[in-house]
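Table S7 (text form). Paired inputs.
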Amino acid sequence: MKSLVIAAGKLAARPVRWLEGSRPDGGRSGHKRMYSRFVALRVRPAGREIRKAGRHGLPVRWLLAE
C-alpha cells in the first residue's frame, strides 16, 4: 500500500484541517487548529484467496493514507 501512495505523488495529498483536538489554545474555539495531508485512492483488493472466493474479486474501495 505504501508504494501506491508514494506513486501517487505529493500533488495527490490534500490538506485537511479540523478544530477539535487535545491541544488547548487561547483561540476562539479553545483548541488549536490541527491539520494533516491525506491521499485518497480507489483500489481493488487482490490476492490468490480473493480470486478463489469469487469470480470478480472484491469491489473497489477507498484507501486513505496520511
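Next pair, protein 2 of 2.
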Amino acid sequence: MRREANHHRSTRRAVAVGGVLLSTVVLGQVALSGPVAAVPGLLIRTTVGPSNSVAKSQSAVCPAGTTVIGGGGAITGSGLGQVGMDIVQPLADAGLYSVTGREDPNGVTGNWAVTASAICAPTPAGYQVVTGHSAMNSVNPKFLELSCPVGKRAIGGGGAALALGSGSSDVLLEDLRVNLSSVTVAGVEAGNAFADNWSLDVSVICVDPLAGEQRVTVDSVSSSVVDRSVTATCPAGKRLHGVGGEIVGGEGQVRLTELRPTSSTTATVRAATDENGFSGSWKVRAYAVCAT
C-alpha cells in the first residue's frame, strides 16, 4: 500500500477519457433523502444490488433535474477483505454514480452485495467533470492526480484500478483523495504480486467555490486489526458535498470496503485485511467536503 511519504510520487494528467467505464447497471432497492441546505436541492440517493457471489456493478441514479456532484459505495456480506471496489466513478453524462465489485483470485464462498450512493443537486455554477488515466503498465504502486481548471474547486470524484484481461480483483483502488482543486487516486497490486499490466482512471468533479467550503479529514487509529472504519462529520450548519478516503500503510493486503456518504453531514470509510491477514499497522482516512 501507499505510505504517506508517497504523496510526492503523484503524477498530474489532464487527458479526456471517452465512453462509459461500466457495462452493467443493476438497479436495486432505492432510498432517497429529502433536500438539505447548501447547494439548493442537495440530496443523496442510494441503491443496493443483489446478494450473490458474482462480479457486479451497481449505480445510484440522480433524479431528473439534478446531476451527480459526488458519491461512493460499499461492499457488504461475506469475505469483505477479498472483494474489491475496483471502480467507484461518477458518470456525469448519465447522471449517476457507479460502483463495481469483484472477488480476488482466491474467490469467496459466501454472498456479497454492492451499494452505490450518489450526491445529487441541480447543476452548480461552474460544474465540470474532468477525467484522465495513467499509463497501462506493470509499475507498482501507481498514483494519479488530476486538477480542476484554474479558479474551480474539486468537490468530488472517483477512480478505478483496471487490470488488463483480468476477471478478478488483482489490483486495489486504495486512495481517493479530494484535495482543494484536484483529486488523487492511488492503486497497488493485491499482495504486491500481480505480474501483468494495469492502469488507473480518475474523475474530478469541479465547481465554482462554494459558500463556507471546508474539508474535514479524520484518521482512524493505526494498528493491525482486520477491519477498521472512520467517519468525517461536517461542522454544524454545513452539509456534505463530496467524499474521499484512503488506506495508509496496508501494503497491498487491505481493501477498501466502504467509501460513501452515510448521511447529509457524514462520510464513512472502511477497510478490511485479506484472508492472509496483515501483521503491520495500518489505518483509514475519511475526507468530507462540506459547505453551507
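Residues 1-37 have pLDDT under 50 and may be disordered.
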